[in-house]
Amino acid sequence: MKRGRGRTGTARLSIISTIAVRMKSGALALGTGALSATVVSCTSYYEVPIEVPISAKLDVSDFNRVLVASFVTQTTEDLDLDAETVRLLRNQLRTRSQLRVIEAEVPPLGDFSETTLKESGKLEEFERLEEEARKEGEEEISRQEWIDMEQDKLLVDQEYWRKIGEEYQQPLIVSGRLTFSSEARSGFARGDRYVRDAYGRPRLVRSTNFQERTGYVLAAEFYFIDGRTGRSIHRERFTEEVIYGQEERTSALSSYFELMDRLLPNFLSILSPQTFRGTRILLR
Amino acid sequence: MRQLQRLRSPTFFILALSLASSAWSLSADTKPEDLSKKQVEFGIDVARIGLWREAVYRWQRAVELDPSNASARNNLGVAYEQAGQFDLAEEQYQRALELDTNNVYIRQNYELFREAYEKRKRKDGDSTP
Q: Measured between CB atoms, which of A28, A234, A281 is closest to B10?
């Protein structure tokens, strides 16, 4: 009897527990419903995530391949700006664009840093030209303007780029000019700090201190060249700056990578579609 | 199988019930303003489960029924922005703000939209063919 009862008891328990589970899920459903109803009745807005498609700026459907060629560079730092940038852009395009990246050694366009210009005698040439211009009463141009013009000559040399395009089966060519320099950014800066008074209570102390700081500036102007014609089809300029305190002791190379890291999404958005994620409010 | 389980889940059941009741109640009211509000609510319900096209249709209907419905215009702005139709989004946000100048949510949406939109425009301006 006991056993029987026991069995019956177990069976009952089993049924009760099943009902309980069902009731629990029902209650949960009702609870969720009530909760959502409360939310609906109490709130007049909903925050929703949105994903905004941003199409690529440049239509690259005519190209299957991309050649990151060489860059004209100007830097105050001991860094191979051209080689580092070519390598970095090729890596990024390989993983984050639809285009096939051509791995090839392209002749360097030229370094316009002061030391290189001195070594190659170009700086003397510029000074001679300046002198002649002054004698003839022509308007003087700054050294930087002259450098820019010399760089432009290379970057818009249609014949040169057409030949490069021909050599690599007419891809999209990426080139441009890069300037990377360090600048003194020392100066007075406000520094707030907490100190403890005689009773151990924290107190905010505002002060102005002189801080030794170095800034690194990276300016990049990218040229997108049609390898079939050698003509520049799109140009875009970006500038990024980072400032470090003296104690941070950051090398030029790591600052270059930090700045390139900031700049890369903008560069990639020229060639491949991107998605912007955010939230917006829907109103009842 | 998973889909079947999902269909049987209480949340889905409630959502379906809510959508059905919203759809039913759409026909219950007769005043254009009330009908417009119902369309707005239904639009929100479907937008929240990712059916943005249906939501756009509902909010467009809401605006047709009551052109002074700022919520409908704000929501349309969000939906157009989500679809990458930035000019339409800007127009709707602006109209919504004109209708309800002090609404902080509309202002917030519009400012966030402008921030992203201006950034894109500025970037386009820096480029040269």
A: A28
